[in-house]
Amino acid sequence: MYSRTMLKVRTLSNNLKMYGSTSSNFVNVSVNDKSGVAIVTMQREPVNSLNLELITQLKTALSDLERNKCRGMILTSASKSVFSAGLDIMEMYKPNQERVRNFWLSLQDLWMTLYGCSYPSVAAINGHSPAGGCLLSMSCEYRIMLPNFTIGLNETKLGIIAPSWFVATMKNTIGFRKAEMALTLGFLFTTEEALKVGLIDEVASSKEDAIAKADKFIGQFAKIPPQPRTISKLMLRSKDIETLRKTKEQDLQAFLQVVNDPKTQKGLELYLESLKQRKA
Ligand SMILES: CCCCCCCC/C=C\C=C\CC(=O)SCCNC(=O)CCNC(=O)[C@H](O)C(C)(C)COP(=O)(O)OP(=O)(O)OC[C@H]1O[C@@H](n2cnc3c(N)ncnc32)[C@H](O)[C@@H]1OP(=O)(O)O
Predict the structure, then answer these.
(1) What's the pTM?
(2) For position 3, what pLDDT does the model report?
(3) Which of 25, 119, 146, 205 is deepest in the core (most CB within 10 A)?
(4) Close Cβ partners of 125 (under 8 Å, ≥ 6 residues apart)
């Protein structure tokens, strides 16, 4: 049914090669020949932390799907326990200035592409989904999650502030009051809590069940003319996308200022240590 890599993810562009990156394939795209629905799988082990390369490859994959007029897209993970651990902290810890700049601009681009894509989008959340992982999930139109995992914007717990477009995405997903509580507490919801608060739409018993449910959700649009569908979606979403488009540089500078603050660097160092110690 789903043929692997029918839509090839392009290798990294030249401007990334200058950082000495190898063009490993962190994203797999497979398309169902019959329905035209694509499954986009993040496969950057161990936790799909979003580094520059994964972000760039995701953006390329989503844009390719747009160009190829795909019928729907399901975003999921190759890991059995993590959807995405959010932004790769190593991109922000003692960063190379040119790379960290590119990193943030690429993340902005990815969000604008995913949030504003014309095709129906579903996150099949088959593992933990904190911070940037939650942002990706919320940017889709529908979320299906497996039990016993967590999801949320936990930035305040890390001593940082979620950028305004993360906040807008959460507010648009669960409403002002619940977003305010969740963001100020840096709350990570369990699957059950996420369902209750409306952060996810359905619970699935397995990844296969999540994909089947996602296919069913997308299938509903077969009878809806695509143009009115897309225009309606963008009427709801384009204001926040345009806000970021207009303030990209300002947002970048705010990010760079925070990242380059010695206090942030110390915080990131301690957090990385705490992640490693959890294992010991
Ligand atoms: C006024 C306007 C100001 C604007 C300023 C903007 C500033 C905003 C800046 C940043 C925004 C950030 C958003 C983010 O996304 S930050 C990332 C937040 N992510 C997390 O907190 C998740 C951390 N990870 C975990 O909780 C767990 O790893 C989990 C995802 C639950 C998976 O657990 P488990 O399966 O047990 O795996 P391990 O913890 O053992 O991890 C395996 C290895 O992966 C490393 N790891 C984990 N997460 C990350 C990460 N996000 N980045 C980099 N590396 C990560 C972990 O250390 C292990 O490494 P190793 O095997 O070497 O020990």
Answers:
(1) 0.93
(2) 52
(3) 119
(4) 76, 83, 137, 143, 144, 145, 146, 149, 151, 200, 210
Calculate how far, in angstroms, residue 136's C-alpha sits from the geometric centre of ligand 1: 15
155 pocket-lining for ligand 1 (C-beta < 6 Å): yes
Q: Compute, in angstroms, the gap from residue 65 CA to the centroid of ligand 1.
A: 28
Give tens-digit pLDDT for 51-66: 999 999 999 999 999 9
Q: What is the CATH number of the domain that holds 191?
A: 3.90.226.10
Which one of the listed residues 58, 127, 155, 183 is annotated catalytic? 155
Q: Tokens 């069940």 map to which residue?
A: 209
Does the pLDDT value for residue 142 go beyond 50?
yes
CA–CA separation, 195 vs 201, rounded Å?
6
Average pLDDT over residues 237-253: 98
Chain centroid offset of residue 176 CA: 21
Percent of the chain clearing pLDDT 70 (strictly above): 91
Q: Among 45, 54, 125, 275, which is best to mutate for testing ligand 1, by the most ligand atoms less than 8 A from CB? A: 275
- Over 90: is that where the pLDDT of 127 sits? yes
132 classed as catalytic: yes
Catalytic residue status for 87: yes
Q: For the chain, how many structural domains are there in total?
A: 1
Query: Is 276 close to ligand 1, i.e. is its CB under 6 Å away?
Result: yes
Domain holding 232, by residue range, is 2-279
With a 6 Å cutoff on the Cβ, whether 153 touches ligand 1 is no
- Share the mean pLDDT of the chain: 92
CA within 13 Å, CB half, 10: 12
Active-site position among 86, 153, 154, 183: 154
